[in-house]
Amino acid sequence: xxxxxxxxxxxxxxxxxxxxxxxxxxxxxxxxxxxxxxxxxxxxxxxxxxxxxxxxxxxxxxxxxxxxxxxxxxxxxxxxxxxxxxxxxxxxxxxxxxxxxxxxxxxxxxxxxxxxxxxxxxxxxxxxxxxxxxxxxxxxxxxxxxxxxxxxxxxxxxxxxxxxxxxxxxxxxxxxxxxxxxxxxxxxxxxxxxxxxxxxxxxxxxxxxxxxxxxxxxxxxxxxxxxxxxxxxxxxxxxxxxxxxxxxxxxxxxxxxxxxxxxxxxxxxxxxxxxxxxxxxxxxxxxxxxxxxxxxxxxxxxxxxxxxxxxxxxxxxxxxxxxxxxxxxxxxxxxxxxxxxxxxxxxxxxxxxxxxxxxxxxxxxxxxxxxxxxxxxxxxxxxxxxxxxxxxxxxxxxxxxxxxxxxxxxxxxxxxxxxxxxxxxxxxxxxxxxxxxxxxxxxxxxxxxxxxxxxxxxxxxxxxxxxxxxxxxxxxxxxxxxxxxxxxxxxxxx
Length: 494
Prior knowledge:
15 helices
């Protein structure tokens, strides 16, 4: 059986080598050289990370991780386990042959493994980009036979190893689709075909990190919801955001529809307060820089938000509140509340995460903050403490203990409270815990899941941050949860 397979493999190689392939002579040798050492795939990943949004960066990272696993498997196990000579080049036209012939074992093909691993890894995150890459990956794999450096069996084995590497990475690090937010509790919301009855407030200033041309926000919304009403704000000398949101909510109630918002987390926070007050469902179109709430909700594109609006698919999510004692008026936050150095920590982490990875960026951020910050003395539930930072999340966050990054459940009924304590050698002990990957076991870090939290004794001049907004902090604060208070459109699993 083995000799038969070997015979078929060699025969297929000679058929490919002796056949004339129109147009291939100009493309395939160059393509196979561009894929040496994974350079082609690294270049595509870098371009996607630089020009695409968060979904594209995540797809690029998964593709590179899959490629790395495939390459390591081929070079440490594959080629060392099976020693196979490279094909003879007698039947391969000289013009196709590579200037530098590889000297390692022919089995399996490392180029095919890397190509399939990268394309499959990308497809797990973004199926359309994965489909676009499939012909390129197949061409690279075929080019190894075309140029005479591999038998077809080597390429098929490499492709199988590459696909297996992508599946292994997905098993170790599940995709967002595998870890989609729970589609509960489901909530009633009107289906609005084409967006009819939806009034969207689009913040023109959101997501503008550079001085480039500003997108036409109304055109963006009408591209996915052509019948929605759009009010653009954020321009100079325009009405304040809260006034625009109030007018939009009144209009949505008249239409029997819903309130929509296109902007970043601060804009979404303001819209959520208005939607709560008017009893309206909220449609979130991620148009900011980070879009934490939209992404944790499972909405990454305008198209996803539009499909949910048109079908009426929605869930109820928790809203966290804080109020200054003894005043009854409450402010709300959908993501995070913090006192102390946390806003600076997040800023540093976000700046470096895309360049060096989330874990190293968290360590760098912790070091920078602890090196420059001074502890703040306050009372937490009546107990006096010295802290560098106090973080409170609306629902439980995942990630490093001192730098949580995302949530899985937006209706779990808890406040995620994390405190970095001051004290003797606190900086050194926390940094050591971060470097060893055990921040949660450090006595410097305190964590709790609570439904209510009281903060008092805040020094004058202290500031607090919530959902990207910064404001002076009162002397006493109470935080609690408004469970399943806000109805938000999101796609539900089939």
